[in-house]
């Protein structure tokens, strides 16, 4: 049950919903992940920062060996990528539309809980 004092995801975000090309994103350990973002999508499973391929720093992310089957399966909705540092941040590359969020096929998504920027250590306030 949501209390009146609980803020929505949008109210708790510390970065704008609409993106820009200037924000630099890092994992919590400081690994550079992206330069700029498109927007933040808020669906039933929470907020996700949306990136295109040109914004991601490709040499700092990989598809884990156990997830490579997703590249060839017609049953999966996303390809799982991970950062190459100890944070092991999960990155979704969207393959198909879903009914619980406005994810776009061909774009990448990362939880704002897993990242920081050059100016902010926390991109979203946690619930108390």
How is the largest sheet built, in terms of strand order? Answer: 3-4-8-7-6-5
Count of discrete domains:
1
Name the quaternary structure.
single chain
Q: Residue-averaged pLDDT, rounded? A: 94
If helices are DSSP runs of H or I spanning 4 or more residues, what is the number of helices? 1
Tell me about the largest β-sheet: 6 strands, antiparallel
Poorly predicted spans? 1-5
Dominant shape: globular
- The Cα radius of gyration reads 15 Å
Helix- and strand-based class?
A: mainly beta
Helical amount = under 10%
How much beta, percentage-wise? 25-35%
Order of helices and strands: HEEEEEEEEE
Overall strand count: 9
**First-residue to last-residue Cα separation:** 14 Å
Please explain how this structure is put together:
The chain has 128 residues and is mainly beta. The protein has one domain (9-117). The protein is 3% helix and 30% strand. The protein has one helix at 9-12, and strands spanning 24-27, 32-35, 39-43, 46-51, 61-62, 78-83, 90-94, 108-110, 115-117. The strands form 2 sheets. A 6-stranded antiparallel sheet has the order 3-4-8-7-6-5, with no helix packed on it. A hairpin with a 4-residue loop joins strand 1 (24-27) and strand 2 (32-35). The protein is globular. The chain starts with 8 loop residues before the first helix and ends in an 11-residue tail after the last strand. Mean pLDDT is 94; it is low at 1-5.
